[in-house]
Each structure stands twice: as C-alpha cells, then as structure tokens.
Write a structure and sequence with these properties.
The structure is a single chain. By secondary structure, the protein is of the alpha+beta class. The chain has a single domain, classed as Hypothetical Protein Pfu-838710-001 (Beta Barrel), CATH 2.40.320. Helix content is about 20%, strand content about 50%. It has 4 helices and 11 strands, in the order E-H-E-E-E-E-E-E-H-E-E-E-H-E-H. It has helices at about 15-25, 100-110, 155-165, 180-185, and strands spanning about 5-10, 25-40, 50, 55, 60-65, 70-80, 85-95, 110-125, 130-135, 140-145, 175. An 8-stranded antiparallel beta barrel has the order 1-7-6-5-2-8-9-10. The chain is globular. It starts with a strand and ends in an 8-residue tail after the last helix. The mean pLDDT is about 90.
C-alpha cells in the first residue's frame, strides 16, 4: 500500500486562539529548525506553468535537514480536476545519513535545486491530527494540519481537517493554494484559495 499524506496549510490573521488551544488540549511533539531543499531532474522537470500563468509542480523531491538528521521525500500530488486544489499526495520518505553527500549525489545524477525553504517548526498532535506551526523565512507564519488516521478514500481527508478546525473554533482562516516552494515562485500572486 502507498503512503498517503492528507494535509492543508493555513494562514491565520490571528493565530493566538489556535496556539492557546494547542497548548491546552494537544500533545506537544517538539520544535525543529528545518531547511528543505527541493530538486527536479534536469531531463524531466517537475516545474511547469499552469493555465493560470503560475509556476507549479505536482511532483516534489525534497531533502530535509534538521538538527536531528536528514530525510529525503518524494511526493506526487493528486488534485481536483476542475479547481486543481490539492486533495492528497502519495509520499515516499526515508532517512538519509549525510545530507551534504545526498545533495552531491543528486547533483551528480542530473538533478538541480528548484527551491530552498527555511523554517522554524513547532509540532503538536491531537487524536488523528498533527499541527505543524511554521515560521517560514520570507513568507510568514503558517499552520500545516495533517490527518494521520486511516482513510478508505483519501480525497475525503481535506473535508475532515476543515470540519475539525471549525469544531475547535478556527473559522477565520485562509487555506494556502500550494506549498512553500510554490509561494516563493509566485510571490506576486495570491497564495490562498
């Protein structure tokens, strides 16, 4: 069975209520400083220009470095055909012993860097939901909410997350259209649905 990731990324004009709820109700997982380097193969680029004129990608190859170690992850996003909203991603992720050597290997194999995202992350868990609160360099404060339970139909996961947020009182939110690299590539456009 494939690993599937179901998440949304939100921007809150006032995150204080959510942060207070997390502190009082959720289990604190920890903090980390993360540097995510995204790559694409030169011979078959992931980046394309969508019908809306924005740079985009449905496939991601990310090398994440933290103080705890490194991991490499490939994601293939599945989207609604009409709106192109992210529904879920197939995800393959594994630890890497040496991030510098992994970058060198990727470059040797014909991959090139397409984005670098630096962030400070605080993570919390409540039931089947994980909250990653990110201060992203040059972009601001966002919260990634991921459904960690089992789903027969991963296309329904996004609705579960949005319903849960409403139940805990998070109603004034903006859902990011795509991930942090997309936001960096398209600084002049609206990042929200």
């Amino acid at each position: 069975m494939k690993d599937v990731e179901v998440e949304i990324r939100i921007f809150l004009s006032d995150p204080c209520a959510l942060l207070k709820w997390l502190e009082n109700s959720a289990e604190f997982i920890g903090t980390s400083i993360q540097t995510d380097v995204y790559f694409e193969p030169e011979c078959k680029p992931f980046i394309f220009v969508g019908e809306d004129g924005h740079k985009d990608a449905d496939d991601w190859l990310r090398l994440r470095e933290t103080e705890a170690g490194c991991e490499i992850c490939f994601k293939r996003w599945h989207r609604e055909p009409e709106t192109r909203k992210s529904l879920y991603a197939d995800e393959i992720e594994t630890s890497v012993g040496n991030g510098e050597k992994m970058r060198e290997l990727l470059m040797f194999l014909g991959f090139r860097k397409i984005a670098v995202v630096k962030k400070n992350r605080s993570s919390w868990r409540y039931g089947n939901f994980q909250f990653d609160c990110d201060h992203v360099e040059n972009l601001g404060f966002f919260v990634e909410v991921e459904f960690k339970g089992q789903l027969e139909d991963p296309t329904k996961g996004r609705v579960l997350i949005e319903d849960f947020l409403r139940r805990i009182g998070v109603t004034e939110l903006k859902i990011a259209r795509r991930g942090y690299p997309w936001m960096m590539w398209n600084l002049e456009s609206s990042h929200f649905e």
